[in-house]
Design a protein that fits this description.
It is built from 8 helices and 11 strands. With about 240 residues, the chain is an alpha/beta fold. Its main location: mitochondrion.
Length: about 240
């Protein structure tokens, strides 16, 4: 008797896999994508049987941070797409080519790149602008009723683009340093979105958010929280 499904079993047919767009913002927490978040998303999507395509905008980074010092490297400039390709193991596509018609869901990891390269939130706060391709993609998925997952600081993108969306960036008080970026919640509200103090599923807008590294906690808790977000996104994608 065969062990497990055959390769021609319906559960393994590529036509039934969820096709998920994973949108990056560079490589490195302080000037690009938070690598652990991006990796966790990929692991959980793999476990969920999703077919993943990785995208990033083909634009210059806001700046380059020396991660050993936490300070800008004034003489350096890098490209968001080229840096994101490091995480994608070279298999990456310009965000300009992403269309919601070809995918069932989109997921955005955090890292300061979401606030520096995908938007100007790091500089402009509630008055920020969102990269035109990021805005287009988010509006396309939202308009098509397809789910969007975001973690860490990335929910600010949805707060800016999707009117009245419900998201979380964690708690609204620092709680002795456990939530060092708690002030972001007020900016979320100023953008016209509703802030929730824990991982949240906005059923109406099909937006799923989790705090990830907005919280000072053990890595496995962050990994598990991202797993719940990915699972909810795939459930909302349905078939």
């Amino acid at each position: 008797k065969a062990l497990g499904p055959r390769f021609d079993s319906p559960v393994l047919r590529s036509s039934q896999l969820h096709k998920v767009a994973h949108v990056l913002s560079g490589c490195g927490v302080y000037d690009g994508t938070e690598i652990h978040e991006a990796s966790a998303i990929l692991v959980h999507l793999s476990r969920g049987g999703a077919e993943v395509q990785i995208f990033a905008p083909d634009v210059p980074q806001m700046h380059v941070i020396d991660h050993t010092k936490g300070q800008p490297s004034e003489s350096e400039s890098r490209n968001v797409l080229a840096e994101s390709a490091r995480i994608a193991r070279g298999k990456i596509t310009s965000l300009a080519q992403l269309s919601a018609t070809n995918h069932d869901a989109a997921i955005f990891p955090g890292g300061f790149g979401a606030a520096k390269n995908l938007s100007t939130f790091a500089v402009d706060g509630k008055d920020c602008k969102v990269n035109k391709e990021v805005e287009r993609v988010m509006k396309e998925f939202h308009g098509a009723g397809k789910p969007i997952g975001l973690c860490c600081i990335a929910p600010v993108l949805a707060a800016k683009v999707i009117r009245g969306v419900e998201v979380t960036v964690g708690h609204e008080q620092e709680e002795g340093g456990k939530w060092p970026y708690a002030g972001t919640a007020e900016a979320i509200k100023a953008l016209g979105a509703k802030h929730c103090v824990k991982a949240h599923v906005d059923q109406k807008n099909k937006v799923v958010t989790t705090p990830a590294f907005m919280c000072e906690t053990a890595l496995h808790h962050i990994h598990d929280g991202i797993g719940v977000m990915v699972k909810k996104v795939l459930e909302l994608a349905g078939k």
